[in-house]
């Protein structure tokens, strides 16, 4: 990856031409969104540049945002180390004994194979979202990238939007404790730390109505069903989460969306931040709130 710091007002095409790049090469880089300004890919030749902007060039062909492999997986960003997607609700992250192909993991591996059969690219799991949770997931494209992301996972900015039943008494709070899992795969809070995993969840009420509250949730750890168990534990389960006590299901899915993901790139160490709008299904409930 090549990087340059802009010193005066100009645009992308003019700046890179002044550095000696050929027009044909620049058009190709723009087509595949391989030019980024302050880590955000651009595809317009006249995109403005300002003093202090960081311009990065990668030879890796990035996928145009909005391209959707099967089952609605949207690829938001891709380079030679990571791939970030926006997963729809209803799709598994990785396969189970009963389902192998209708997963984000399988579909992305197929997507890479179809795009370049000779390159033998593959995807590595870094973290997961529950089947009925939508939103942002980062996958690694090398074992090294996977290891570095997981080693620094507690430093990753992981934020969710959740609509919960009722309104929490505290506008902001931190929920912390040990989580364990039963033989029936139900996660529960435990006072016994043996065989349990410590989890920390922070929430803030953004809007509320008489029946529901929209909360922003930040997790410092990444445990299975962590958010669902913690908010249920304070008496406000996620809407649609019958497994953990919800009595309503107007969206016919969990009202939980991973909307922000920020991490240091495992190779360049540059900060990367991604956001995803909540699905339209959230709008009706959210519009009732103040």
What does this structure look like?
- This protein is α+β, with helices and mostly antiparallel strands.
- It contains 6 helices and 16 strands.
- It has helices at 12-18, 23-31, 104-115, 143-151, 226-233, 280-287, and strands spanning 2-5, 10-11, 35-37, 40-42, 48-49, 54-57, 74-78, 82-87, 134-140, 157-165, 172-181, 187-190, 197-208, 212-219, 256-264, 271-275.
- A hairpin with a 3-residue loop joins strand 13 and strand 14.
- It is globular.
- The model has no long low-confidence stretch (mean pLDDT 89).
Helices and strands, with pairings:
Blueprint: E1 2-5, E2 10-11, H1 12-18, H2 23-31, E3 35-37, E4 40-42, E5 48-49, E6 54-57, E7 74-78, E8 82-87, H3 104-115, E9 134-140, H4 143-151, E10 157-165, E11 172-181, E12 187-190, E13 197-208, E14 212-219, H5 226-233, E15 256-264, E16 271-275, H6 280-287
Parallel strand pairs: 9-15
Antiparallel strand pairs: 1-6, 2-5, 3-4, 3-6, 7-8, 8-9, 10-14, 10-15, 11-12, 11-13, 13-14, 15-16
Count, helices: 6
Helix content: 10-25%
Uncertain stretches: none
Q: How large is the share of residues in beta strands?
A: 25-35%
Indicate the radius of gyration in whole angstroms.
Answer: 21 Å
Descriptive tags:
single chain, 290 residues, alpha+beta, 10-stranded mixed beta sheet, 4-stranded antiparallel beta sheet, 6 helices, 16 strands
């Amino acid at each position: 990856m090549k990087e340059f710091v802009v010193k005066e007002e100009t645009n992308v095409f003019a700046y890179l031409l002044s550095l000696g790049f050929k027009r044909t090469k620049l058009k190709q880089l723009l087509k595949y969104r391989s030019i980024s300004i302050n880590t955000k890919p651009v595809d317009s030749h006249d995109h403005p540049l300002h003093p202090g902007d960081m311009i990065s060039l990668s030879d890796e062909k990035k996928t145009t945002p909005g391209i959707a492999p099967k089952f609605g997986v949207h690829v938001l960003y891709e380079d030679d180390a990571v791939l970030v997607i926006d997963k729809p609700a209803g799709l598994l992250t990785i396969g189970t004994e009963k389902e192998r192909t209708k997963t984000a993991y399988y579909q992305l591996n197929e997507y890479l194979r179809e795009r370049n059969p000779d390159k033998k690219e593959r995807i590595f799991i870094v973290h997961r979202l529950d089947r009925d949770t939508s939103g942002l997931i980062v996958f690694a494209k090398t074992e090294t990238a996977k290891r570095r992301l997981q080693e620094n996972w507690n430093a990753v900015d992981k934020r969710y939007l959740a609509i919960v039943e009722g309104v929490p008494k505290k506008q902001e709070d931190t929920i912390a404790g040990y989580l364990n899992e039963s033989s029936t795969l139900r996660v529960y809070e435990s006072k016994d730390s043996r065989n349990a995993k410590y989890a920390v969840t922070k929430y803030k009420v953004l809007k509320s109505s008489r029946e529901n509250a929209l909360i922003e949730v930040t997790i410092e750890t990444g445990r299975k069903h962590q958010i669902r168990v913690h908010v249920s534990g304070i008496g406000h389960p996620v809407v649609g989460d019958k497994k953990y006590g919800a009595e309503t299901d107007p969206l016919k899915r969990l009202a939980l969306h991973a909307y922000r993901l920020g991490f240091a790139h495992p190779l360049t160490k540059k900060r990367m931040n991604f956001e995803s709008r909540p699905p339209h299904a959230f709008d009706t409930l959210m519009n009732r709130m103040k």
